[in-house]
Amino acid sequence: MPRIAFSFPVSAAMLHFRPIQSFLLSLLSPRSSTSPAPAHAGPRDHSLTQDAFSIADQSMIATLRAECIRQDAEGLRLWPVDASGMKVQAVAQACPQILRALEWCRKRGMVQIETNAWDELIVLNTPAA
């Protein structure tokens, strides 16, 4: 059996939810005519979609909390890190897992980037997130 080596730390949440994240990010994008979604979604489809978004939201917040360095005890203010786990000054320098989770959370309105003279912080909007 071939072995797979990762060159960066991968959280269990990212491995488990990556297909769901890709699908849900496609739902956030403008619809194209080749979309596999039915034209008339029923109430059950809407409920499943809400559940899927809720799971993805929780996964992305968990990824940010697991991969970033917490600045406060509640885990609402986070310093981004690079692939080696070192704190970075700009969010754009963060590791790919953080950037993917951050992209999702920004589109969903769950985070803000706070900038000061030294660095950038990821700030979660609510403790329940």
Attribute tags:
129 residues, 42% helix, single chain, disordered N terminus
Task: Give a nutshell description of this structure.
With 129 residues, the protein is an alpha+beta fold. The chain has helices at 12-28, 43-67, 96-107, and strands spanning 69-70, 77-79, 111-115, 120-124.
What does this structure look like?
- There is one protein chain.
- The chain is of the alpha+beta class.
- 42% of the residues lie in helices and 12% in strands.
- It contains three helices and four strands.
- The protein has helices at 12-28, 43-67, 96-107; strands at 69-70, 77-79, 111-115, 120-124.
- The protein has a four-stranded antiparallel β-sheet with strand order 1-2-4-3, with helices on one face.
- β3 and β4 form a beta hairpin.
- It is elongated.
- It starts with 11 loop residues before the first helix and ends in a 5-residue tail after the last strand.
- Residues 1-10 have low confidence and may be disordered.
